Amino acid sequence: KAGVTQTPRYLIKTRGQQVTLSCSPISGHRSVSWYQQTPGQGLQFLFEYFSETQRNKGNFPGRFSGRQFSNSRSEMNVSTLELGDSALYLCASSSRTSGGQNTGELFFGEGSRLTVL
Amino acid sequence: DAKTTQPPSMDCAEGRAANLPCNHSTISGNEYVYWYRQIHSQGPQYIIHGLKNNETNEMASLIITEDRKSSTLILPHATLRDTAVYYCIVRGYGGATNKLIFGTGTLLAVQP
Known about the structure:
The structure holds 2 protein chains of 2 kinds. Chain A is mainly β. Chain A has strands at about 5, 10-15, 20-25, 30-40, 40-50, 55, 65-70, 75-80, 85-95, 105-110, 110-115. Chain A has no helices and 11 strands. In chain A, the strands form 2 sheets. In chain A, strands 2, 4, 5, 6, 9, 10 and 11 form a 7-stranded mixed beta sheet that branches. In chain A, strands 1-3-8-7 form a 4-stranded antiparallel beta sheet, with no helix packed on it. By secondary structure, chain B is mostly beta strands. Chain B contains no helices and 9 strands. Chain B has strands at about 10-15, 20-25, 30-40, 45-50, 55, 60-65, 70-75, 85-90, 105-110. In chain B, the strands form 2 sheets. Chain B has a 5-stranded mixed beta sheet with strand order 1-9-8-3-4, with no helix packed on it. A 4-stranded antiparallel beta sheet of chain B has the order 2-7-6-5, with no helix packed on it. The N and C termini of chain B lie far apart (about 35 Å). The chains are: A mainly beta, B mainly beta.
């Protein structure tokens, strides 16, 4: 089956603009997580959604937000872009066990590479 | 902060076994060890996870010491395509979240 799809793959914005990134999880996966990867900070957790509800949030300013739709697709938004927001943004989806447990096995997309000028 | 310590880099000859160590001396009794890898410019890929018994799948083997304070990921016959950053992660199984805390990982360079 198809993997996690992220769009757009590459984009360039200028400071002060806002950006929306999209993620389509693997069919049947209802949990979606977002991560930011930069050379200086590595991979950092942004937030996680399940059944359209944010379940967990990382230590990022309020300019970073997200949402999940009823079909499990997710979007994240960054407003008032700063140079330091230049990064690879990764989306991951996962399923749960029949008992509803999170397995820790995440399937990542190839990411959206954002450059802020 | 990541609960694991890994060497920053390792080399391995193609066709030989790659043994990647990980220290997790503060691991709790209910926490599992997970391994992911990230090939350049791609998203991380799940490899394997385990609690205390050794685990094997089609990609790799995971050996966890009896005191669970360290583990080794083994790629039995490394190929050039195994060149990647390998992350060792400790987390509880189940729970309300899938959050992973990535450390800096080990860059494995497989040499021809």
